[in-house]
Design goal:
139 residues, four-stranded mixed β-sheet, alpha+beta, two-stranded antiparallel ribbon, globular
Amino acid sequence: MAYDLVISNLVLHYIADLDKIYRNVFRTLKPKGCFLFNMEHPVFTAGIHQDWIYAENGTALHWPVDNYFFPGRRETFFLGQSVEKQHRTLTQILNTLIGTGFQIASVEEAMPPQEMMNIPGMTDEMRRPMMLLVKAVKP
């Protein structure tokens, strides 16, 4: 069965073999079919603890990016649990799509809308990208 649309929401940064996922999605899409996905941005996954560096008074000073060009497993904490994620560079994420045969139609680094800026901590979300959104099409 072939599909017109495949959507992946916040799981690809947990998958070790992203090439296999891309190939399977490509195989199941009809020509002109669309693959939409969002995942944690590589700047977000590059930090070991995936948290801000804080001043003594609790102010977020900066977002640490370390070992960006070394892809692979990252262990972090999410909702009080140890979680394993996979870090890849932006180049690896996008060029693997292209190598699979997809055409990239759109790439967005998500940022919060203006109407959310009054939520505590939301202005800090403008200091680094957290999410990557991609639209790819099978020719």
